[in-house]
DNA sequence: TATGATGTTTGATCATCATAGAATTTTGAA
DNA sequence: TTCAAAATTCTATGATGATCAAACATCATA
């Protein structure tokens, strides 16, 4: 936990990686939570998975360019890179229901 | 090639599967081509991959709900399920640059 | 009924991924 | 300095995934 963590520059955020990151429901939920509640400390996230697994998901989110991780003492604050994503892929966060009204999982459609 | 091919109902199209399907650049390009040129015959698609690999990608696209495959004699006509996708996940196809101006790969952003 | 054209399916291989437990790193506080 | 808390990294494993070559199925037509 020495050097700085990798974050891609805005212009280097790739659609391939972003879509792959978003294809996992837990990662989408983390993104949604960051959007809804603002920056979070990792420990405040709770999912039925091991800590190391969550850590892996956070790494995928960070390296894809979806969020930033800021080291604050012994904790880490994660935030959605909303502006960068909106600039690079307008409408995407809305479309995947990260930012969005999106009440229940199954939006009536058919 | 006997029975009918599986296509999920509009309401059963899952975001997980759609995003996974779209996370591959070849599959995104197939979707973009269908949108730009209308329904295509598979053989008109040309990528530097084996036929069987392309067939696999088309299956992923079809089973995710992104396109339909219609058997026409010895060929198959594939089409983008634009309306279904728009109804289920508004703005998604635009955001992932399937339907969109999207001139070059690297949209100036940073 | 052969034959060719169009795709798919099968079988195999190598890579990537989600997952978890254990060990490790870092920091803050007793 | 010792210890607890927070989170990552390491290591391993089972599941998917992308890929290709070869075999197969279907249809149209000579």
UniProtKB/TrEMBL annotation, chains A, B:
This is Helix-turn-helix transcriptional regulator. InterPro entries: ArsR-like_HTH, HTH_ArsR_DNA-bd_dom, HTH_MetalResp_TranReg, WH-like_DNA-bd_sf, WH_DNA-bd_sf. It comes from the Bacteria. Keywords: DNA-binding, Transcription, Transcription regulation. SUPFAM superfamilies: Winged helix' DNA-binding domain (SSF46785). It holds the Pfam family HTH_20. SMART domains: HTH_ARSR. Gene3D superfamilies: Winged helix-like DNA-binding domain superfamily/Winged helix DNA-binding domain. It comes from Streptomyces olivaceiscleroticus. Residues 17-94 form the HTH arsR-type domain.
């Amino acid at each position: 936990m020495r050097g700085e963590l990798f974050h891609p520059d805005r212009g280097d955020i790739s659609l391939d990686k972003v879509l792959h990151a978003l294809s996992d429901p837990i990662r989408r939920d983390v993104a949604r939570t960051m959007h809804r509640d603002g920056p979070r400390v990792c420990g405040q996230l709770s999912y039925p998975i091991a800590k190391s697994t969550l850590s892996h998901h956070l790494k995928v989110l960070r390296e894809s360019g979806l969020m930033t991780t800021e080291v604050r003492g012994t904790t880490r604050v994660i935030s959605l890179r909303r502006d960068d994503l909106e600039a690079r892929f307008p409408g995407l966060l809305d479309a995947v229901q990260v930012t969005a009204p999106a009440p229940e999982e199954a939006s009536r459609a058919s």
